[in-house]
Amino acid sequence: MSGPPSRLRSVLGHLWGPGHGHETTTPNHIHQLSPTFFLERAAAIEPNAEAVYHVTANGRVLRRDYQELADRARGLAYYLLRRGYRRVGILATNTPAFLESIYGVIAAGGVLVPANYRLKQDDITYIFDFAEVDLIIVDAEFEHLLAGFKKGHPNVPLLVDTDTDATEGELSGPFDEAVLEGLTFDRENGAHGWAGLQSARVANEDDMIAIPFTSGTTSKPKGVVYTHRGAYLAAVGNIVESGLNVPFGRCKYLWTLPMFHAMGWTFPWSVCAVRGTHVCLRKIDYPLIWKLLKEEGITHFNAAPTVNTLLCASPQAERLPQPVQVTVAASPPTAHLFEQMTDLNLHPVHVYGMTETYGPITKGYILPEWDARPKHDKYALMARQGHGFLTSLPIRVIKPDRPEDEAPVDVARDGREMGEIVFAGNICAKGYYKDPEATRRLFAGGVLHSGDLAVWHPDGSAQIQDRAKDIIISGGENISSVALESMLVEHPDVLEAGVVAVSDSHWGERPKAYLTAREGRAIEPAAFIAWCKHQSAISKFMVPREVEVVPELPKTSTGKIKKNVLREWAKHGRREGQ
Amino acid sequence: MSGPPSRLRSVLGHLWGPGHGHETTTPNHIHQLSPTFFLERAAAIEPNAEAVYHVTANGRVLRRDYQELADRARGLAYYLLRRGYRRVGILATNTPAFLESIYGVIAAGGVLVPANYRLKQDDITYIFDFAEVDLIIVDAEFEHLLAGFKKGHPNVPLLVDTDTDATEGELSGPFDEAVLEGLTFDRENGAHGWAGLQSARVANEDDMIAIPFTSGTTSKPKGVVYTHRGAYLAAVGNIVESGLNVPFGRCKYLWTLPMFHAMGWTFPWSVCAVRGTHVCLRKIDYPLIWKLLKEEGITHFNAAPTVNTLLCASPQAERLPQPVQVTVAASPPTAHLFEQMTDLNLHPVHVYGMTETYGPITKGYILPEWDARPKHDKYALMARQGHGFLTSLPIRVIKPDRPEDEAPVDVARDGREMGEIVFAGNICAKGYYKDPEATRRLFAGGVLHSGDLAVWHPDGSAQIQDRAKDIIISGGENISSVALESMLVEHPDVLEAGVVAVSDSHWGERPKAYLTAREGRAIEPAAFIAWCKHQSAISKFMVPREVEVVPELPKTSTGKIKKNVLREWAKHGRREGQ
User: Which residues form the AMP-dependent synthetase/ligase domain (chains A, B) (predicted)?
Assistant: First the structure.
């Protein structure tokens, strides 16, 4: 059973296409997995629980309970159904409207297409054009980024959210009006509520639910097909792995991670599943984050290592009274960072994944026996990418460069042989949207290829060494830029490090390090290189040939260091195009 | 992909039937859900974690880590594969061998059939005969209960576990020998380990995994068909709902609940999924349970209200330093019990379900706003059966006695109209084994019928009033025996109460109460009836006409009061046949 009840169906007419009637033959003991139901359920169990805390674009504090969040998502869904929109783009920061869209669009049987507002306008135009959206929900701050798209698609309307709706009963703009229109429409047509939507019942759990895009540093962004089943199992996995089901309490989840990025690693669903509070955030603002950590009782947030590094270095940093679980991913973290975080009562849950795996798919499980080891060893073990998630199949590390049609072969589990991390099972995305060739390559040999190089330790945990293209080959030795960076940041004056290869007539390649200094500190390159030579962890062939101190490292919107920009800098002997 | 790799397959020959080859067409992004993988995974991540703590039949303390538990389960699986056993009965108390059988039998592609060793021998014979087992794993203590079955099935072998295997390298009996035979067989035939078994990969998640039987108080026990998918989703739901993923630690789960009962509510899988310790227990022994609670750092256990009542009344009871989460179900608990438990730092997680729903399918979610209410009100709200589980669809309460072929109609959500609680979705069993007619009745109208009468409160929570046949109709008023029992145990001298109808010439029916007294207390029936008349919660028509004090109430093996026995006692004016 799925789709609206009979009265509503006749009103909506053709809007619900084939496959959305009662014709399904699902047996009684099975319902199709879909995470949209988590919101309807939360509002039914605990309508007064705080669902949203947010400081709006005009600086007002907004608090909404689960009843209100669910009502608003439901209103949006009926608006979309009534108007016939099925493929909805969204360009917004971490606002309540984004959350409502995740639930509203999918409850209307539609597919959500989030885009990264930090991309250049051409890429945003490309994404919404390629994904064939028929409506775009846009935060007023980013409307100008759609000028190019509008020119080519004058018939695709924009639904603007002003993110100023802080007063009861006051409509702040078109997005609010749409929500109200939908609620009125439902009320006047039988008041079917959630039962008229795709929430508890969807037609097929393997259907598409959303198309987030990869960040596309080197090529066009690729659309990644998420399914109801995949999103459900990833979201439930994240509850267990990040401990969102707080014993004797509720999680308060701070939205430092962009929602557009891999659907916020499915946390929009995970948090509602446990009736937690979404503490929304328009932008990364370290003083504000520390204020929220100290005053709002935050229990969880997710962030890339770079965000955590800057958070720990922030003047507001001080040890929190309550432990906070911080799910860390996006690029390999250093042992040094984990030690700093733990000292502040920020406890790393180290995960690893990619847009193609709904975000996290591995976890560095912390073993009690590590407590007996020296502190630095413990944090180094925590910085490994670890094992497959509860709801995934095991990871593998396979020999690279094998013919695509041959079965993958594992590398030795010796912590030395380098191979590619690959994934399998339910929290792998279905493929790339409208790109069967790229999908075939993604799943070559029946496993999902990460493109990341790793070693496999005897204990079964994997540790990333580098992106395949970032490895430095010097005198026949492989140098992991990631490993070298984690050694360089041990220097007391260094905040962050980015390492790339520069050519060397004798060794073929040698590492060059770009460094940023901690506030109030200075780094002298020659002295730094001398320091490197005296570190036992840094082998002679790994010592950087060149060191350059820069005010800031170039990063992707998800906090990864842009190695391609560093390579350009190194090649041309100057910095540009950041 | 499923089934053993090629070399092993050729050795095993015909043992893996069709459907267990590589011919499946599951796409790359999907793996079939099955909880057996949780053990293989736990051993891979944390081989040294304590998996089992057990006091053996000969009184020795046994501790096994995850590597050992997994190895033993794997050995059993290869033994079964080699010998060709596919449908395996088990008759045992909560022993390590039971746990190993749950994993070993299913990893071998077999189906497990647990029987309740407290049933009379005829019923045990019936169960194993009806389920067509080809091997029975039996704890030595219960071997005599299989005499009847053996007579009719001389060719079905027994595999006896002596539960005495406490010494490294020492074989304690046939069960241990079988494990060793299996491990040797695998080693000599390619050492495929878990990859040769049905663990990470099964052919079809909707396939049968186990056939637990109902307790069958009024008719023959019925076999309930569990699937891989259902067991997986129930087990993951239980992790979240009972909080087994202890933050910064590990769960230590005490096996007070029988493993044979609804496959231990899927907790054999849930606990391994989070690498918790199974603290096994041969029998309910209150001094021992208190010793384990105090000395072994137990974090969780599951038990029926009757077990919790006796636990709270035990002389060893004292407030624990650590909070323990106690998942309570099997019969409706009283507010009084929840208050007593909380005072001892035993925190109830109130769930409700039946064998046909893999155990728990609803939870009484505790709302923070209840803390503002009088204590007794709070505990009364906690004693409601609540809402559907995270991994279930919502419960409904429907008008009873509707034609089977008509769609169910909900009762009013007014906390007054009585109806039947029904379930839907993934944690409903597939049906009754070899009984299509009973399966059709179970799912009449497309919902799973509980047979329990409940009211539906305006907040969406359900509260059980009675089994349909236990309701007392007095002067046209419905009296819930459950509700009346919870009022009677408020009397300071009463330990437990069981209420049934007796006929009354004027009112049609009137309640009769059977009571047990707390240790060292006495109850005088006439004085007790007078007390009832002065309780504001007990309406005049609810006051028992007769009260009888008994040394013990008759109970099923799962702790439910046997109302049919009480009715017999009431009818004949004497007690017998307990």
Answer: 39-433
